[in-house]
């Protein structure tokens, strides 16, 4: 059995660029940055950032282009694909990208839509406190040991 599946949650590094293929289908491309945070053996906080190229087709490309912008957070589900070509100088080039099958938009900093049913909110708009909680992820300071997990 084979599986080629990618799940990413990150922030856009550039605005989506929307193009139309000769077939009339839409295609959008953009970048997402993800980060990994850990503590080294000396207990110092370390961070590593990875940059990913995303390509999305059809109606989702149009929607992503309309609602996403640089800095927006998004959840991308897709597959890895590598393209190869010959550059003008004769060298062989390749590019690995994620072909998105589904994109979910993250919370919006402007407080606009995307939320449904809030507690006591007539239009589903988050309060400033809710937005603040959604925008940050707090990681535990202590290291989690697998043998201490009760299941």
Highlighted features:
151 residues; mainly beta; OB fold (Dihydrolipoamide Acetyltransferase, E2P); 2 domains; five-stranded mixed barrel; 6 strands; 44% strand
Summed up:
The chain is mostly beta strands and 151 residues long. The chain is 11% helix and 44% strand.
Number of E strands: 6
* Beta fraction: 35-45%
Structural class: mainly beta
Mind summarizing the main beta sheet? 5 strands, mixed, barrel
Please tally the helical runs, counting DSSP H or I stretches of 4 or more residues: 2
Strand order of the largest sheet: 1-3-4-6-5
Q: Classify the fold: give the CATH topology of the largest domain.
A: OB fold (Dihydrolipoamide Acetyltransferase, E2P)
Rg, please? 19 Å
Low-pLDDT regions = 111-125, 128-133
User: Helix and strand string, N-terminal first?
Assistant: EEEEHEEH
- Binned, the helix content reads 10-25%
Q: Using the coordinates above, name the CATH class of the largest domain.
A: Mainly Beta
In round numbers, the mean pLDDT is 81
CATH architecture field of the largest domain: Beta Barrel
CATH superfamily of the largest domain: Nucleic acid-binding proteins
Overall, the morphology is globular
Number of domains: 2
Question: Could you tell me how far the N terminus lies from the C terminus, measured between alpha carbons in angstroms?
Answer: 29 Å
